[in-house]
Amino acid sequence: MNRVRWGILGAGSIAGRFSEALAALPEAETLAVGSRSQESADRFAAARGFPRAYPSYEDLAADPDVDVVYVATPHPFHAENVELCLRAGKAVLCEKPFTVNAAEARRLVGLARERGLFLMEGMWTRFFPLMGRLRRMLSDGTLGEPRMLTVDFGFRAELDPASRLFDPKLGGGAMLDVGVYCVSLASMVLGRPVRGTGISHLGETGVDEQFAAALEHGGGKISAITAGTRTSSPHEATVLGTEGYARIHSPWWRPEAMTVSKPGHEDEVVREPTEENGFRYEAEEVMRCLGAGERESQIMPLDETVSVLEAMDGIRSSWGLRYPGEEAGPAAR
């Protein structure tokens, strides 16, 4: 492919930011947007320079000229929106969290593999240059064997029962909004989680406003996570190895610097400046994969997306936290 023709499913703020990133990439063509009304689609298209605007997601998925669709709708709608696009034969990039639970994710992964289509979770943190540097350090043993990780992601939002952060019908709560970043980072550094436990505070709307969790990653490796939507936190992460540790400076989820500390050595500050719009890195990976004929990214593999959601399901099951449609529990869907 010389140019990759993008469709955007959803016309909210994240869709707008992602579109701005695409506009700066010469190999990307911002072709079409689909929304829930012609008015909102036209407004988005005019503001972002899209030549085609559709009044429904079905119309966008049916456009034969669209190569790949970015799904930017609220969490609970990801599964049906991704399935729509896959059944229409489109490659798909879906904003995190991929789905609200592992059962939905397994179904989509199976469908993509059955149809030979590209599919990836838009976990943008994975694709920043500093995270690539960290992966190389872990691979070459700079820190020895990674054994533990601590990470936090919390911010203060005012209570609004109708907002996506607090409405259970919109997948509200800390786990899906920011906790998924932390669990995914722990998985990247220490391997896929095999067991998790935690405690939470469920607020007046029934969503998890804050939680603390511990994950076991096999071989005695452990991660500790705190996340919240009602309490601000430092937004830092520390990778602890047998021969040293690396502190990823705030905000770790949009990282530009980390300090590597090793006994007997001076601290080393590692910097990897990023572009202002960090969505470009995941978009570049999608287009690289499509150009190479790859069906999934090795930076964000589909099996790992599923295992991260399995860990999240396990953590919240002990809280009794279920999302709409999960009457029998997270694994039932």
Description:
The protein has nine helices and 14 strands. It has 333 residues and is an alpha/beta fold. It has two domains: 121 residues, Rossmann fold, CATH 3.40.50.720; 145 residues, Dihydrodipicolinate Reductase, domain 2 (2-Layer Sandwich), CATH 3.30.360.10. The radius of gyration is 20 Å and the shape is globular. The protein starts with a strand and ends in a 16-residue tail after the last helix. The mean pLDDT is 96.
What's this entry about, in short?
The chain contains 9 helices and 14 strands. The chain is an alpha/beta fold and 333 residues long. Helix 7 (174-190) packs across helix 9.
SSE layout and pairing:
Layout: E1 4-9, H1 13-23, E2 28-34, H2 38-48, E3 52-54, H3 57-62, E4 68-71, H4 78-87, E5 91-95, H5 102-115, E6 119-122, H6 129-140, E7 146-154, H7 174-190, E8 195-202, E9 208-216, E10 222-228, E11 237-241, E12 244-248, E13 257-261, E14 268-271, H8 279-292, H9 302-317
Parallel strand pairs: 1-2, 1-4, 2-3, 4-5, 5-6, 7-10
Antiparallel strand pairs: 7-11, 8-9, 9-10, 11-12, 12-13, 13-14
Keywords:
333 residues, 9 helices, alpha/beta, eight-stranded mixed β-sheet, six-stranded parallel β-sheet, 2 domains, Rossmann fold, Dihydrodipicolinate Reductase, domain 2
* Level-2 CATH architecture of the largest domain: 2-Layer Sandwich
Strand fraction? 15-25%
Based on secondary structure, the structural category is: alpha/beta
Domain count, please report it: 2
Question: What is the approximate shape?
Answer: globular
Element pattern in H and E: EHEHEHEHEHEHEHEEEEEEEHH
